[in-house]
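Hey, resending since the last one bounced:
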Amino acid sequence: MDFAIEVNNLRKEFKAYSSRTGLKGAFRDLLTRNYKIVPAVNDISFSIAKGEMVGYIGENGAGKSTTIKMLTGILMPTSGKIVVNGMNPHKEREKFVSTIGVVFGQRSQLWWDIAVQESFRLLKKVYKVSDAQYNEHMDHVIKTLDIEPLLDKPVRKLSLGQRMRCELAAALIHNPPLLFLDEPTIGLDVLVKLKIREFLKEINEKYKTTILLTTHDLSDIEALCERVVMLDEGRIIYDGALAHLKDQWADGKALQFQFLEHVDLRHLNLITSGMAIKWEMDEKESIFTAFVDNNDELISQVIAKVVAAIKIKDIKMNDISIEEIVRNIYEKGSV
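The structure tokens again:
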């Protein structure tokens, strides 16, 4: 199999400095600092085939962004081996960057005060893209992402959703075979997210672009990726099919209730006391969700108890979401 990314026993350690207390401690810190070695990425190994779309997920501090920075050559590993597009990202930097595209949700590669199309022209020169290649590829990208009306605007005048669509287009100016996306849909509304997802599917099908996606929005993963790599405290705790993860862990239902009267979680817990059930509340949407095992009798009992005690506006029954599955996995510590 042809691999876009191969990682073997990759490790990245940082020094965490601590300060001593008091004036005497401050003077001692000037001469010598106390520190401990903290592994951010802890001897991980995985490989991604060309043309794959893989979700790289984990809680804050799990080591996702550190991994991406090593894979893109921004950070140098403490130990281990990385081969991306047949190259060492850190040692063959200039040649390597022309084979990848990167979108960091929190950082911009566009120039803040100039028009979007001027940024595109500068990046076109940086990547040595010919006019013919640029026109053939970018006409399609600009049309699909619906950014033509934005090309004459300075980046600082764009909304977050508009800027992220332009960032994605900028990462694809040289039509790279590998795309790294780190939180590309953070803070975006639903319509913009859908547009970006459809576009990513399209370039994956059309150009066989390999995509490594890290995100906290697991609906992105569900929409795009068949495979997930899950990280916890710098270690891989799951690497496999998203469908298999769901089959193993999604053995339950989520009962969503909306009520016609004021209700709190304490009241619901009282009504369903003694039942194997977990309640959660979405204050924004005024939705109360009961997570129960996939047991017809138990589900019927829960609905009967709630309906008998409180006036119902609406009720839905869904499979347990990928967010809930991942939360359960982290609470239990392994897959």
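The chain has two domains: 3-247, 251-319.

Sorry for the duplicate.
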